[in-house]
Amino acid sequence: MQNRSHCPIVFALDLIGDKWSLIILRDIILFDKKFYKDFADSQERISTNILADRLAKLEAARIISKKGDTEDKKRFIYRPTEKGLALIPMMLEMVLWSAQYDKKTAASADVLKRIKKDPVKFAEDIKNRFR
Amino acid sequence: MQNRSHCPIVFALDLIGDKWSLIILRDIILFDKKFYKDFADSQERISTNILADRLAKLEAARIISKKGDTEDKKRFIYRPTEKGLALIPMMLEMVLWSAQYDKKTAASADVLKRIKKDPVKFAEDIKNRFR
User: N or C: where does chain A have the smaller number of CB atoms within 10 Å of the terminal CB?
Assistant: First the structure.
């Protein structure tokens, strides 16, 4: 797809309009996962080649950053950048939508209540964990 | 992917976590397009087999509805359902994010200002066009 027109919907989709990219971002931002092994162990069972590809793409788009782990030089720590953290409001809207239409949603009533009450504060609280 | 755990992020991705599905929803909800031909003519040049597949999936998920056009019996009118319209806040967050990070964004300053000032009202105004 080409986004010569710079449609803002297409711009976002070009970078994160892929199921696996958003699942990895969920793991990093909402579930606080940091390491390759943690993402590979997610219950959605992402394949290792897709995982490596999407991590590289998210890093190239500066949505996440990758740096060596000072405690274990063989592994890397993945963290969200400010650009990645700026996706939280969109993710929270996805959560609210799903909670409304999935009768078996795993989103807790308490979390939903807090998101609805003050989505900006909810997003800021998450961001502050990474700053 | 299986969503046995009913993660709300995965629930949304299972239904709309596909670039083309969201482009079609953009056309229907934000660009007020109604007919198959209009979607096929979008500048992203969606192929007809993908277009037909995604329209059927969105209809099966009750995100859009399809009914015969009373003015031209050979064609159908596609409209968003309430479930589809409930995706507007998520789409607006995508727009804000892209406008922030795409220097060449096509999102107009006036629209961005109105979304930021009162996103709930902005979404309601769009919804009311379809009710």
Answer: C
Question: Minimal Cα distance from B95: which residue of A?
Answer: A8
Q: What is the mean pLDDT of residues A24-34?
A: 97
Which of residues B63, B81, B99 is at a domain's end?
Answer: B81
DSSP B86: T
Same domain, residue pair B121 and B60: no
In terms of domains, do A35 and A99 share one?
no
CA distances from B24 to A123, B34, B42, B50, B53 (A): 28, 10, 9, 11, 11
- Please tell me whether the interface predicted TM-score (ipTM) of this complex is above 0.90: yes
**How many structural domains comprise chain A?**
2
**How big is the A-B interface in CB pairs under 8 Å?**
125
Query: In degrees rounded to 5, what are phi and psi of residue A45?
Result: 55, 60
Q: Answer yes or no: are the C-beta atoms of B92 and B121 closer than 8 Å.
A: no
Contact, A40 vs A51, CB < 8 A? yes
Q: Which residues of B touch A102 (CB under 8 A)?
A: 6, 8, 11
- pTM given for the model: 0.94
